[in-house]
């Protein structure tokens, strides 16, 4: 998974070129886009030569260098200092925060936001809007700028890279804030701690408002800290924002960039349309167009008298989900295989063994049908199957998966201890510098020792591309931050009966984890929202135990406080990533700040509205006792499990599951340490084969095995595509993947509207032919 990198939800998202957000799930490491890359000039020459040879017609083999690519090392060379802005961009005399830029950016962000609610409720994965907004924005506004006269109201005028940056910034802001609506907020409803989403809509709006604008205001001073003061010292490259800046730069390189952008947009449009059409149409013949149940078919062809039904019961099916085929293209083989083999371990080995040994239990789905009497569900989380003595396999496997993800996230975070130490030093230095400056303004001379502590080597600092008058003054963001903190205490106290002290604790946790999240994002492109949210829940759980509150109140405040901290940290890390894009493109920070604030308004209203739409169309999302549901909500289960574990005095976890959880988490920590330290020298080449433990943990929480299969369906062809035709893949790979992901997401929104309108399939319209027991 948010935005930067891929934000899970398992608190992690998937980003172009392969990164997953733990609110945004699993993650893959990206190589430094500046470390080595093909010569842009050579690639551009390749495009121009081929374009000329074809009399102006665009060929599929046109080459371009955008972001990260798999290329032959012999063709790579160092091009740029990653901490120096681009100096070959055209000047822009026009105002860059335009109505057209904000409208297109917010529309792109809204599409990603809606898609993320759909995809996150299904799988816990979310996808960033940064590159999506950059490409769509260029294609739409560059075309308008060419067709319309410059004096045309609103839509006319030149379109340059910095206005393109504003489109992308607005898209990121408008596409954010969805993570808690696929995790903490639904968990509150599943536990019966809030009323209904429709009646709570005003409360959800205000919660999102204070959380989102806390992250917005708090991210402002962090621009100078993370982009200027400590970027070089800590090697904060911010891979996805850097790739986005390079994409925008390359698209604005005269005719070459425009030709490549057209090819990208065409591929994205075709993929988007096909995915949307498939998602909408397939609901009317789901067993034919969407889900294939080969083992159910074998069972039928065998006269309902063979053991193929046992495989079907564990949901080993094939689903043609464009979003996760696209995700496979983005994340690569390591993540896809890790996710798939995690499903094999959980739902192909451990789960069946638990049932065979009588340690977990299933529920018959068609007990009155003699032919399908052995058709079972092993994924129930209803009250009957969520106890110590009578757990379903899903409930038993939930705890090892959640604990593994928490342990892995914290280990990844703690292994950055040197960086955390440097951040601490930098904070002290910044405070000392502020004190020295204030003392001098008062006409006094600060001590020599204090001046030494405040000093920083000029070689360590990054030269800010922004002019002094372009920087955001403190009186813009500081009063806003203070007002937001006060409003947070009022909102949480009046609407949710949260004490002021606990509200302030949640704000402090958001502040603390924002620092860690931004640092990790800058180095690894991974936003550690799993660690941030779960750590917040654990700290808040300790605080509630000291108050002696009843379990229901403790759980409500735990989930609300964790949601508030997660919203703030996620939004802050996303917006600092946008500042990194603007730094490289020399965009006015004040203009970016305005775009971020306006885009956040869209997200504040859109994210809760999309959640309510899906909750109304599919009530099973917030019903813990629902036996079947098209949305499994793995992030919801993870948040709910953590809240129960830290607040419920009975600790309702099967003993065998608890023991295995601890052993499994220790193994996961060991594997992370091995990956961090073992692959050095001649062993470095084996790092790519090391399993992704976050993905394996997610597979334990997600009973649908077909998502891992779908990711392989995308990752394996993409691997050979990139290997055989790297230039071709670089142009079309991300565009196709983004189109597939966004297309299915928007198709899912349309399906939800159809469901409410009573015209959805397969019930009341359509057929369930091909489904086991005629029920998909």
From TrEMBL:
May I have one GO cellular component term? fungal-type vacuole membrane
What keywords is this UniProt entry annotated with? Membrane, Transmembrane, Transmembrane helix, Transport
Transmembrane segments in this chain: where?
A: 101-119, 125-145, 166-189, 201-222, 267-290, 323-350, 395-411, 471-494, 500-518, 593-615, 657-674, 695-719, 731-754
Q: Which Pfam families match?
A: OPT (PF03169)
Q: Which GO terms describe its molecular function?
A: ATP binding; oligopeptide transmembrane transporter activity
Q: Which SUPFAM superfamilies match?
A: ABC transporter transmembrane region (SSF90123)
**Where are the residues of the annotated region Disordered?**
1-79
Specify the protein's topology with respect to the membrane. Multi-pass membrane protein
From the Swiss-Prot or TrEMBL record, state where the protein is found: Membrane
Q: Which family does it belong to?
A: Belongs to the oligopeptide OPT transporter family.
What name does this protein carry?
Answer: Oligopeptide transporter
Name the species this protein comes from.
Elsinoe batatas
């Amino acid at each position: 998974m948010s935005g930067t990198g891929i934000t899970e939800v398992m608190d992690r998202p998937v980003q172009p070129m392969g990164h997953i957000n733990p609110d945004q799930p699993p993650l893959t490491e990206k190589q430094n886009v500046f470390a080595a890359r093909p010569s842009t000039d050579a690639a551009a020459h390749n495009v121009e030569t081929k374009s000329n040879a074809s009399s102006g017609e665009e060929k599929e083999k046109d080459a371009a260098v955008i972001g990260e690519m798999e290329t032959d090392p012999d063709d790579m060379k160092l091009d740029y200092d990653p901490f120096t802005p681009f100096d070959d961009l055209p000047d822009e005399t026009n105002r860059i925060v335009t109505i057209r830029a904000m409208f297109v950016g917010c529309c792109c962000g809204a599409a990603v936001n809606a898609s993320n609610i759909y995809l996150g409720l299904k799988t816990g994965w979310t996808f960033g809007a940064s590159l999506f907004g950059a490409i769509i924005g260029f294609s739409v506004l560059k075309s308008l700028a060419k067709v319309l006269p410059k004096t045309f109201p609103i839509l006319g005028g030149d379109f340059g890279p910095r206005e393109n940056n504003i489109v992308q910034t607005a898209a990121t802001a408008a596409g954010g804030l969805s993570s808690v609506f696929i995790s903490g907020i639904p968990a509150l409803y599943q536990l019966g701690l809030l009323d209904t989403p429709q009646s709570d809509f005003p409360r959800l709006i205000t919660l999102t408002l204070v959380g989102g604008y806390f992250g917005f205001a708090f991210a402002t001073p962090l621009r100078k800290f993370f982009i200027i003061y400590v970027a070089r010292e800590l090697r904060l490259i911010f891979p996805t924002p850097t790739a986005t800046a390079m994409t925008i730069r390359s698209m604005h390189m005269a005719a070459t960039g425009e030709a490549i952008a057209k090819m990208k947009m065409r591929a994205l449009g075709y993929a988007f349309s096909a995915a949307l059409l498939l998602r909408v149409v397939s609901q009317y013949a789901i067993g034919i167009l969407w889900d294939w149940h080969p083992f159910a078919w074998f069972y039928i062809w065998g006269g309902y008298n063979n053991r193929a039904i046992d495989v079907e019961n564990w949901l080993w099916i094939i689903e043609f989900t464009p979003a996760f085929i696209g995700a496979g293209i983005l994340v690569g083989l390591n993540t896809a295989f890790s996710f798939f083999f995690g499903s094999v371990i959980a739902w192909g080995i451990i789960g069946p063994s638990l049932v065979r040994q009588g340690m977990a239990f299933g529920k018959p789905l068609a007990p009155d049908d003699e032919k399908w009497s052995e058709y079972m569900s092993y994924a129930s989380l209803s009250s009957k199957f969520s106890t110590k003595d009578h757990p379903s396999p899903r409930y038993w496997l939930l705890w090892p998966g959640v604990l593994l993800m928490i342990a892995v996230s914290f280990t990844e975070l703690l292994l950055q201890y040197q960086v955390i130490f440097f951040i601490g030093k930098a904070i002290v230095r910044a405070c000392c510098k502020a004190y020295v400056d204030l003392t001098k303004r008062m006409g006094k001379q600060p001590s020599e020792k204090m001046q030494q502590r405040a000093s920083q080597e000029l070689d360590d600092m990054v030269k800010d591309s922004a002019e002094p008058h372009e920087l955001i003054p403190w009186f813009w963001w500081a009063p806003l931050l203070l007002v937001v903190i006060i409003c947070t205490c009022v909102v949480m106290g009046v609407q949710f009966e949260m004490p002021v002290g606990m509200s302030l604790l949640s704000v402090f946790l958001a502040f603390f984890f924002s620092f860690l999240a931004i640092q990790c994002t800058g180095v690894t492109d991974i936003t550690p929202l799993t660690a941030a949210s779960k750590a917040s829940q654990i700290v808040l759980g300790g605080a509630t135990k000291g108050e002696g509150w009843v379990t229901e109140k403790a759980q409500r405040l735990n989930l609300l406080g964790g949601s508030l901290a997660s919203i703030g940290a996620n939004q802050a890390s996303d917006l600092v990533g946008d500042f990194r894009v603007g730094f490289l493109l020399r965009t006015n920070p004040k203009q970016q700040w305005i775009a971020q604030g306006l885009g956040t308004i869209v997200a504040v209203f859109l994210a809760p509205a999309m959640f309510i739409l899906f909750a109304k169309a599919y009530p099973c999302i917030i019903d813990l006792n629902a036996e079947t549901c098209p949305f499994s909500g793995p992030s919801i289960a993870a948040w709910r499990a953590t809240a129960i574990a830290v607040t419920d005095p009975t600790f309702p976890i099967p003993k065998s599951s608890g023991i295995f959880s601890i052993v499994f988490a220790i193994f996961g920590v060991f594997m992370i340490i091995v990956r961090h330290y073992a692959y050095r020298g001649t062993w470095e080449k084996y790092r790519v084969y090391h399993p992704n433990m976050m993905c394996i943990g997610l597979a334990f929480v997600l009973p649908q095995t077909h998502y891992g299969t779908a990711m392989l369906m995308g990752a394996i062809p993409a691997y050979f595509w990139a290997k055989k035709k790297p230039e071709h893949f670089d142009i079309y790979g991300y565009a196709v993947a983004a189109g597939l992901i966004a297309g299915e997401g928007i198709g899912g929104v349309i399906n939800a509207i159809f469901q409410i309108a009573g015209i959805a399939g397969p019930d009341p319209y359509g057929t369930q032919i091909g489904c086991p027991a005629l029920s998909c």
